[in-house]
Every structure is written in structure tokens, then in C-alpha cells.
Amino acid sequence: MTAGSDVRAAFTDPAENLAFDEALLRVAPESPVLWLWRNPVCVVVGRGQRIAREVRVEECERDGVPVLRRASGGGTVFHDPGNLNVTLVLPGPADRPLEALGQVMSAAVDHLGLVPRIGDRGLFVGEAKLCGFAVFRTKTGLLAHSTLLVETSAALVGRYLTSAPPDPRPLDSHRSPVASLAEHGIRPGFPAVEAAVRAAASQILGTFVPRPPTSAERDRQRALLHTRYHYPSWHADGAQRAA
User: Fold this and answer.
1) Which entry of 80, 91, 112, 196 is 20 to 30 Å from 202 by CA?
2) Has keyword Ligase (predicted)?
């Protein structure tokens, strides 16, 4: 079996992170790819969501919090340095695209000392969501990613995301109470949390070999920045620029 790749990359611009996230899938890897990353403060909406229904726009503008759009579906999430993003890319078709990532995150959280359960579109401890899941498919593979609340407070998340609307629509986020590892009394630090995720991924999916980004991944990232992630209309309403 070909070993998977544990990509070690960090970008300071959230648009670059989102572009690289998608680029990992677009290059069609032949074995699993794992990437752990963090963003500066921002709000990220799902592919087909409407910002006005998901985001407290005035609060974001007041505090200088950018609102961006990703390529995958799923709900709106708040990112900051207290939140660990986990990207898993799997080659080929899969019947249950989120199952592998759910298993990885469950095993990691269990190792950190909590008892998780997989619920509707996320991982829960008790009634509070600890991390959400989203997925994006292509003909050659799928990308599943998760946002794990490590230190970010629930109050901070609620400051920038709207409550559930009175007239729910299919693409609206499914709002749930949230609580971070720290709010559950677990404060291991990011190196320990990342180590737990990497160990769980290796246990469930096989060996992951650390490596830097490939030239193909960086080239695809730059192309996606041009057509999507550095293009204001993409973040506003999902419109792309011609290549």
C-alpha cells in the first residue's frame, strides 16, 4: 500500500489556505493526504450559502473580520488561531465520504480524554458540537474537512454567526451549541492536539509521510487564487472569474 502524505504547509492569508485546501483535491492524489492548518480570524461560508442568512455582517465589518467562501458544502464556520482545521483527501469514489474523517476525529478526541459521538454534520461531546464536517467531491476523489474547536470560545463563535433563521432553507447552517476542548477542561496545547490527529489518521488509514507542498499543488493553488479566492465576487456570491 502506498503511504499517505502528511503535508506540512502554513499560509498567513486565509484565502491562500482555502485555495490550498481545494488544490490538494484538484491535483488528484493517488493516496490519502492529510493537512492540519489554522487560519487568522475570519468567517467561512459553504459553497452555496447566502452571507446575509449566515453572518452578522455589521459585526464582522465593525471588527474587521473577513467573510470568505469555500468550495465545499456544509455550514458556516468561524476560524481563528484557536481552531484547528483538518483536511483529509481520499482518492477515488467513496460510499461514505465523511466516515473516515469522522473516525479520525473521534479517535483523536477520545485520546485527548473526552467521549465523543458523531451526530448531524459534526462531532459532539454531550450536546455541544466540538467540530463540524464538510465534503467536496470530484470525479477523481473527495475532500473531507473538519474544524476542531481547541481554544476558541463559544461566545466568540456566536458573535459573528447568525442564529437559526425562522424560515429554514436547505442550504442554511444547522445551528448547534458549541464548546471547545478548553471549555470541556481539556487544554493540551496545539502540538498535542495535532499529534493526536496524526496518530489517529495513521492508525485508521495507514502511514502518513511528512512532506512539503508539491509544485503541482502550489501551481493549482495559484490558479485557484486567481479564479476564486482572490476574486471578491467569489466570496460575495460564488461567481468565478474566467481562467
Assistant:
1) 80
2) yes
Q: What is the mean pLDDT of residues 51-67?
A: 97
**Which tens digits make up the pLDDT trace of 44-53?**
999 999 999 9
DSSP string computed for 163-191: PPPSS--TTS-----B--TGGGT----HH
Question: 124: which strand partners?
Answer: 117, 129
pLDDT digits (tens, 9 = 90+) for 90-108: 998 766 767 899 999 999 9
Q: State if pTM tops 0.70.
A: yes
Contact between 176 and 164 under an 8 Å Cβ cutoff? The reply is no
For 125, the 3-state DSSP assignment is strand
Measured torsion, CA atoms of residues 160, 67, 101, 182, in degrees rounded to the nearest 10: -40
Beta bridge partners of 86: 36, 146
Q: Report how far residue 114's alpha carbon sits from residue 55's, in angstroms, rounded to the nearest whole number.
A: 30
Residue 205 grid coordinates: 488509514
Please classify residue 133 by burial: count the beta carbons closer than 10 Å to its beta carbon, then call 0-12 exposed, 13-18 middle and 19+ buried: buried
In contact, 206 and 32? CB cutoff 8 Å = yes
CB contact at 8 A, 24 and 212: no
Q: What is the pLDDT confidence band of residue 188, given thresholds at 50, 70 and 90?
A: very high
Closest to 39 measured CA to CA, from 70, 77, 85: 85
Q: Are strands 67-69 and 77-79 parallel, antiparallel or unpaired?
A: unpaired
> What domains can you pick out in the chain, each with its CATH number?
4-160+174-221 (3.30.930.10)
What number of CA atoms fall less than 13 Å from residue 198's CA on the CB side? 16
